[in-house]
Every structure is written in structure tokens, then in C-alpha cells.
UniProtKB/TrEMBL annotation:
PANTHER family in the cross-refs: LACTATE UTILIZATION PROTEIN A, UNCHARACTERIZED PROTEIN YKGE
Domain Cysteine-rich residue range list: 3-84, 127-221
Originating species: Chitinophaga agrisoli
A Pfam family assignment: CCG
GO cellular component, one term: cytosol
Protein name: (Fe-S)-binding protein
């Protein structure tokens, strides 16, 4: 299958190793991966701030670059959800619809499309999963604890395949970290307090690493960990699944 690699702008600028790990992992699993070098921001920051009417340029550019791929895969639940819910192009809606119906967050693509049953990765560490809100509540990558239903987690399903990895059980499995995009700017104090609480849950349960499928959440928690001089590190799930 022909897969278009969608790397959000903040990953490209600050965490390029996540994009590289995503590419390597997909290729290990037999995908033919293309990276449209002209891709830019998907438009989520503008839409989240109430300016979705200014995202036409982003929508056209995204559609032009990804319209010919069988699937589009990105290592960011929030950016993928934005495209899935909001990509519309008046003069090329057929292509936009194809993209909306074939774009996947990485762990979702691995479990639902490739149906991965085993991995060669090895990561002998205690790891806590941060269930990012967009992935959990928008893309339904895991069950919300307030609902009565069979628990599931696509990221956890994949991490359970990693040799030597020990998942730690948290007190609040799906609590928000407080990042929330522009929320962390306009409500800084609340955002920081939420982040400290989220980090503390992992620390109290002995996590050496915090992982997630959204780098924005990890970036927020990494800043808190560094200011606390904590030895706990953050890693995107792609980096762990591609490790070893």
C-alpha cells in the first residue's frame, strides 16, 4: 500500500526524531512510504482559536499533497483528528473526502489497517501511557473510564508487544495533561497545575518513561519534568515501537 507520511509542523521543528521513527517503523512493516516535502501546518491552531475561515490555504495545500495516497498516517492524534473532522475543499471535495476517510493516527493504523500482531522492538523499562484527549475522545483509540464498556487501548495493545517493557498502572488512566493547544497559553496556571498532577501520577507509580501518541502532550509534560529535575523521560510511542 502507498502511505503518505504526515508530519505535523511542531514535530518537524522540535521533535524530528519522532517523524524518523514513524517512517522507519512503517517501512519495517512493509509499507511504501512517501513524504510530500511541501507539506506545512494542517491549520489546527487557527481553527482552535476560532479562525477556521482562514484555513483554506492549508486545506488546499494538504489536499494537493496527499490526494494520491491510499492512506495518510501521522504521529499526532490531534492533527489527524483535525483533518478527519475539518478538511473541506470546495473545488476538490472528492479528494478531501478521500483524505478524511483514509487518514489515520499511527497506532490506529497499525492496529486497524495493518493489524499488527507482533513486533521486534525491545525496551526494558517501566513505562506509563498518557492517553491524549484528542486520540481517546475524538479518534476513540481507547475506552474512556467514565463509560461502562469493555476496556481497550490501541496504544497499550501495541506496547504489550514490546519485549522487556513493563506498563505501570496509573491512578487516573485518562486524565488530561492540561496542554490543550492554546489553552496552555491563555490559562497558563491551570494548565501547569494539570500537567504537574499528570506527571506526579506517573512518578508515584515508578514510571521511567511517559509515552503518548501526541507529542504536544509530551512536550508539555517534558517541560514540567525538566523544571523539577526529574529523571523521568518522555518518548513518543513510535520511538518505543521502533526501538531495538
Amino acid at each position: 500500500m502507498k502511505v503518505g507520511l504526515f508530519i505535523p509542523c511542531y514535530i518537524d521543528q522540535f521533535y524530528p526524531q519522532v517523524g524518523i521513527a514513524t517512517l522507519q517503523l512503517l517501512e519495517k512493516l512493509g509499507c511504501e512510504v512517501g513524504y510530500p516535502s511541501g507539506q506545512t501546518c494542517c491549520g489546527q491552531p487557527m481553527a482552535n482559536s476560532g479562525f477556521e475561515h482562514l484555513t483554506d490555504g492549508c486545506n488546499h495545500l494538504f489536499t494537493d499533497h496527499f490526494k494520491d495516497y491510499d492512506y495518510i498516517v501521522g504521529p499526532s492524534g490531534s492533527c489527524v483528528l483535525h483533518i478527519k473532522d475539518h478538511l473541506h475543499v470546495a473545488d476538490n471535495e472528492k479528494a478531501a473526502t478521500h483524505i478524511r476517510q483514509h487518514i489515520y493516527e499511527l497506532s490506529e493504523f497499525l492496529t486497524d489497517v495493518l493489524q499488527v500482531k507482533q513486533l521486534t522492538a525491545r525496551f526494558p523499562h517501566r513505562v506509563g501511557i498518557h492517553q491524549a484527549c484528542h486520540g481517546q475522545r475524538g479518534l476513540h483509540l481507547s475506552q474512556m473510564t467514565e463509560l461502562v464498556g469493555q476496556p481497550f487501548s490501541k496504544p497499550q495493545q501495541l506496547l504489550n508487544m514490546v519485549n522487556g517493557l513493563e506498563l505501570v498502572e496509573l491512578s487516573r488512566a485518562d486524565e488530561c495533561c492540561g496542554f490543550g493547544g492554546t489553552f496552555c497559553v491563555f490559562e497558563e496556571a491551570v494548565s501547569v497545575k494539570m500537567g504537574k498532577d499528570r506527571v506526579e501520577d506517573h512518578i508515584q507509580h515508578g514510571a521511567e518513561y511517559i509515552t503518548s501518541n501526541d507529542v504536544s502532550c509530551l512536550m508539555h509534560m517534558e517541560g514540567i519534568l525538566r523544571r523539577q529535575n526529574s529523571p523521568v523521560k518522555v518518548l513518543h510511542i513510535a520511538e518505543i515501537l521502533n526501538h531495538g
